[in-house]
Design brief:
The protein has one domain: Beta-galactosidase, Chain A, domain 5 (Distorted Sandwich), CATH 2.70.98.10. It is about 5% helix and about 45% strand. β24 and β25 form a beta hairpin. It is globular.
Length: about 325
Amino acid sequence: MITSEDFGQLPDGATVKKYVLTNSNGFEIHLLSFGLHIQKLIYPDGTDIVLGYDSLEEYISDTYYLGGVVGRNANRLSNASVIINGEEVKLSENESPKQLHGGFQGFNKKNWDGIIENNVLRLTYTSKDGEEGYPGNLKVTNTFELTDDNRLLIGYEAESDKDTVVNLTRHDYFNLSGFAVPDIKSHEVQINANFYTKNDITSVPTGEILSTKGGVLDFREKRNIANQLNTFAGELPMGYDHNYVINKPKDTLAFAASASYGQKSLEIETTQPGVQLYTAAYVENLKGKAGKTYGPYAGLCLETQHFPDATKNDHFDSTILKRNTTYKHQLIYKFVC
């Protein structure tokens, strides 16, 4: 079942809706039309496993992408640019000298139009030609369905009237304890990846694809985050913020990653080639829901995506969307308790 209610009003007078998706087992997803933020993700025992805010004003001022959609392009782009048809296209530069997560006002700062069709929530947004520097009028559709086998099915589609770049993801911060413990270092993570894309000192890929085997980035089997960081003490002073190469054929839907704490776990499937593990080391003294204060490692993100800066690395899967063709990908969150 899907219901809706008003969540607040934007400065321009537009109403922000909150959609509540429920299933027969007692799971709830609270999703905002503003930035498609998952404000709450509640297990049947009442545990809310995502970080978030109580008010619309906090989402408007948020700089951590806390639970929102990311677009047009996830992750970092060197020189705040992309290469399209052999030409460099300059974009907005919101993390100088790079662009991060689509620019100053990415898709997480837009109010999407929503309709409920049976048990599916369909939300759309049209990004105008030149927005944040990207060419083409891009119409994006995002669908959400919560099934009775405890899966959240998320679908993405986009079409443009010019050749452009599209790489969409979600930026949900999970803490499966419901913040009973204030960090996720005691969580176990598994990532279906034998390789990762190496970053330079600016967190942009060098183009090298390296093995995860035996190192601090090795989550091929379930591993405790704290144990990994302690075993390889000093190697990752700011924790994890790395893109993994998922073990699967191109464009197929397959297991990407999981996180677990106690009896609860989250399993993620995607058609995307990569998944970014981020352990929120940059979050500091952030007022969150229900009077909680979030600090470093308060949550973890598993952002399914194309590889960062793909237009400058020909051996990465392309993020170019040709005019009048359709971008599609699927994401599934499976909840276990």
